[in-house]
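Students often ask what a 'structure token' actually looks like in practice. Rather than answer in the abstract, let us consider Sensor domain-containing protein, a protein of 194 residues. Its sequence is given first.
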Amino acid sequence: MIRPFVQGDPVTHRRALAYPAVLASAHIAMAALVVAVVYQVGTVVSSYVARPLAVAICALAAVVAICVDVRAVVRNTYTVGLKRQTAKVLGHDPDRPWWVTPLLWGLDTGLIWSTFRVSCTSWVLLLSAFLNVAPQWSGFAYGAFFGVPLMVAVMLPEPETYARPDGWPLRGVQLAGMTLLVALPLTMVAGYLA
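Now compare that with the structural description of the same chain:
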């Protein structure tokens, strides 16, 4: 948890805010790069796939993703993806500069496919970028929707001041992901029809 890093005297607090800032920046940069590369690779494929078909495939993928996410919520688990995370031992080496761990952690999570996923939104984004339905810069937005809330959460008061039921953070993220997934096919169809 990041919160213990940001408590204490003002100097320690300022220095500790740099940790999630590096993590968030690395995540945003890597997500933007990955989606841009997937988009560029997809330009070859998308030139052979009619635009209405590409939009329909992405809309169908979003609907399937909603079903998979609902299943994950019901089973109280994560969604489809690798069941791994960045090695925790990175943070326990006193000889390593402080910024290396959050940098590697952010780059790893920014790869999108390499760690636990709480929503299938990631997979729909990659498919949409590959079919050139999502814009090339959408990885930046995806990364920002992780990085900005992370920084806000670190600066909020202790969780005990606004207690939630057990499992709320994971469920909240999954519900937000499902809301986005519901909006995606509607937005794609509306954009195509306009």
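One point worth highlighting: The chain has a mean pLDDT of 76. Ask yourself how you might have guessed this from the sequence alone, and why that guess would often be unreliable.
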